[in-house]
Amino acid sequence: MKLKPLADRVVVKPLEEEEKTPGGIILPDTAKEKSQRGQVMAVGPGRLDERGERVPLEVRVDDLVLYGKYAGTEIKIDGQEYLILRESDILAVIEK
Amino acid sequence: MKLKPLADRVVVKPLEEEEKTPGGIILPDTAKEKSQRGQVMAVGPGRLDERGERVPLEVRVDDLVLYGKYAGTEIKIDGQEYLILRESDILAVIEK
Amino acid sequence: MKLKPLADRVVVKPLEEEEKTPGGIILPDTAKEKSQRGQVMAVGPGRLDERGERVPLEVRVDDLVLYGKYAGTEIKIDGQEYLILRESDILAVIEK
Amino acid sequence: MKLKPLADRVVVKPLEEEEKTPGGIILPDTAKEKSQRGQVMAVGPGRLDERGERVPLEVRVDDLVLYGKYAGTEIKIDGQEYLILRESDILAVIEK
Amino acid sequence: MKLKPLADRVVVKPLEEEEKTPGGIILPDTAKEKSQRGQVMAVGPGRLDERGERVPLEVRVDDLVLYGKYAGTEIKIDGQEYLILRESDILAVIEK
Amino acid sequence: MKLKPLADRVVVKPLEEEEKTPGGIILPDTAKEKSQRGQVMAVGPGRLDERGERVPLEVRVDDLVLYGKYAGTEIKIDGQEYLILRESDILAVIEK
Amino acid sequence: MKLKPLADRVVVKPLEEEEKTPGGIILPDTAKEKSQRGQVMAVGPGRLDERGERVPLEVRVDDLVLYGKYAGTEIKIDGQEYLILRESDILAVIEK
């Protein structure tokens, strides 16, 4: 199954946060912090501006991005969690 | 009975969520998650932009779409539940 | 008495919801669901757009329309309940 | 004393609601419903639009109008209650 | 001390409300209603519109004006209470 | 240390309110009212309008200004309290 | 790892607040005030204005800036706390 986001939306696959503390203790799921990092899986065509033209997105497929803890809508597809965000909810691109 | 949505509204028929857990247990209605997937049954003519022109919708009849859990207004017609959403409440189109 | 709605407002006469359950039991008033369907009795001249021109309404007198449960303002005239809505509160027209 | 409302404001004198029930019982003041009908006593010159021009009002002095239960600001002048509303709070004109 | 209000602001000196009931009883301070009437002491140069031009105010110094009970900011200068309001918080001018 | 406010912001040094009651009693700190008067220490270059041009500020360095009790952000620099406000939070200039 | 903020966002490294009271007492972490000062580490390309052009930022990398106590989103990277703010959340630049 493939997703085609609408307007200025972006589909992101959240990255698992570190499962060990700096001291090497393995954390249970409930103690892990909510991920704020993810990989862009798909981008929309951009929103329409006032002149009726599409505004292309700054982020690209495969970009690693940072976002707020409560941004976007969680969607579960085939057992995998995804996040659908507006581009304006993305704070920064992490350069590799 | 047929519905003609106004402006940028879309009539969606929610898809039943899986009734079995991965282990094969049949779920009762109250344990099923609220659907976030549905099929587009009808689309409006589009909202008017600032120049007084209609902005045609990106989604089409028969598209399979994803939306937030609390998006739109539920309407019951002839015993069938429908959802009427603004197009901006639709997150993505699911490609078949 | 006749009402002339202002701007983009619409006067709607709510339709009585079914008074019987599918099994044929007659429902008391307090168990009936709030109507979300009504007949358009009067429409306003349309709101003024940014260029100072009237935007005519999509709905017409006699249209059967769908609206949200808590939309509009209830008005009682000569013992009959009416609803005054903005056109943007109307979700769809029901085709007969 | 005379009031000159500013911009798109309207001074309305609320009409007393019926003091008898359909069965002829005279209602005490506390059981009367809040009036939603009134007579226009004065209208403002209209708000300024984006081009700096006045938008004249649709309602006229002496019009009988309908408004929401909690619309506007109540003002007491010489012992008489008035309501000052924006024209956009007026739902409809009642034709006589 | 003199005040020069900014943009579309107005300095108003609230009028003392009647200190006697219609029956002639003198009211203590705590039983007096909050004033909604005042005299304009100073007006600002007007806000800037979208074209960068000042929109001159409708009210003038010495006008007697009506305003909502909770409008504006109270300021005490040399022991005297004043109210600084935006012109849009002024409901009407009282003609003398 | 010197502050350069951004856009339409203004740095204000609040004036100490009178420490004596009219009867000559010296007030402890906790009984003093929050200051609503201050001296402008620095002004920003102005916000950008829709045409991309700076809108210069009305207030100037050294102006004595009035503002609401809860306006702006308090900042402590080298032990001295300052307030950073948007110009739109300033109610009036006090003429000396 | 390097961050490329989107639109009008800015990455800031908060400065540690003084760890001693004026009297020389070393403060524990929980008694320290939340920092409102930080150093700009990266700036975005600017937001798009209505004409579709980028509005370049006023702040530059290495600027020392002041911001409100609850502004922005905290992000932890490689054990170091950063703050991602919109430029409009920055109150002033501190001149060195």
Structure description:
7 copies of one chain form a homoheptamer. In chain A, strand 5 (73-77) and strand 6 (80-86) form a beta hairpin. Chain A is elongated. The two termini of chain A are 28 Å apart. Chain A has a 6-stranded antiparallel beta sheet, with no helix packed on it. The first copy, chain A, is built from no helices and 7 strands. Chain A has strands at residues 2-5, 9-14, 37-43, 64-67, 73-77, 80-86, 90-95. With 96 residues, chain A is an all-beta fold. Chains in contact: A-B, A-G, B-C, C-D, D-E, E-F, F-G.
Summary of the model, kept short:
Seven copies of one chain form a homoheptamer. The first copy, chain A, has 96 residues and is mainly beta.
Fraction in helix of chain A: under 10%
Classification by helices and strands of chain A: mainly beta
Largest sheet of chain A: 6 strands, antiparallel
Strand adjacency order, main sheet of chain A: 5-6-2-3-4-7
Contiguous low-pLDDT stretches of chain A (5 residues minimum) are: none
Order of helix and strand elements from N to C terminus of chain A: EEEEEEE
Oligomer: homoheptamer
Outline the secondary-structure elements.
The structure is a homoheptamer of 96-residue chains.
Chain A (H helix, E strand, L loop, with lengths): L1 E4 L3 E6 L22 E7 L20 E4 L5 E5 L2 E7 L3 E6 L1
Antiparallel strand pairs in A: 2-3, 2-6, 3-4, 4-7, 5-6
Provide tags for this entry.
96 residues; mainly beta; six-stranded antiparallel sheet; elongated
